[in-house]
Amino acid sequence: MATIFSKIIAGEIPSYKIAENDKFFAFLDINPMAKGHTLVVPKQETDYIFDLDDQLLGEMAVFAKKVAAGIEAVIPCNRVGVMVLGLEVPHAHIHLIPIRKETDMSLANPRVKLSKEEFEEIAEKIRGKIDLISF
Ligand code: 5GP
């Protein structure tokens, strides 16, 4: 059965899309730890990120780097934190989280509540910056 992320990639479930190429898809996390919290997912359905082959894993890191540059251009932060858990959704993904301090990455923090309009505005702004960066 397709994972929820495969359904998002296929457009069967809506998402606030940030970027896409032939191998990867990036979209806003629906339950964000910070404004701009983005997930980067390979289109290939693999549960554990370290089961991806070396080539694809490397390309995923480069794709995530470009997405992170777009996030940094829009969300005031000191850097974009990178996290991999994969305990909830069995489809490899990298969390990109704009942070100001170490504790901003704590899973114990309350999640940020955003309206549909706020999600759309953030996604549009980040997309606008990423368009300037060649994929
Ligand atoms: P993990 O598998 O890394 O523990 O967490 C999965 C992440 O995916 C969580 O941060 C959760 O908010 C996010 N997530 C789960 N389902 C959806 C969904 O349907 N849409 C979006 N945009 N994010 C989701």
SSE order and pairing:
Layout: H1 4-9, E1 17-20, E2 24-28, E3 38-42, H2 54-74, E4 79-83, E5 94-99, H3 116-130
Antiparallel strand pairs: 1-2, 2-3, 3-5, 4-5
This protein binds guanosine-5'-monophosphate (5GP).
Guanosine-5'-monophosphate binds next to strand 2.
User: Which runs of at least 5 residues are low in confidence (pLDDT < 50)?
Assistant: none
Overall spatial form:
globular
The CATH C-level class name: Alpha Beta
- Small molecules bound in the structure, each named once: guanosine-5'-monophosphate
Radius of gyration: 14 Å
The second-level CATH architecture is: 2-Layer Sandwich
Beta-strand level of the residues, as a percent range? 15-25%
How would a textbook summarize the main sheet?
5 strands, antiparallel
Helical content band = 25-40%
Q: Write down the overall mean pLDDT.
A: 96
State the end-to-end distance.
Answer: 30 Å
Q: How many domain units?
A: 1
- The total strand number stands at 5
Category from helices, strands and their pairing: alpha+beta
Work out the helix count.
Answer: 3
> CATH topology, which one?
HIT family, subunit A
With strands numbered from the N-terminus, the spatial order across the biggest sheet is: 1-2-3-5-4
Write the H/E string, N to C. Answer: HEEEHEEH
| The CATH superfamily title | HIT-like
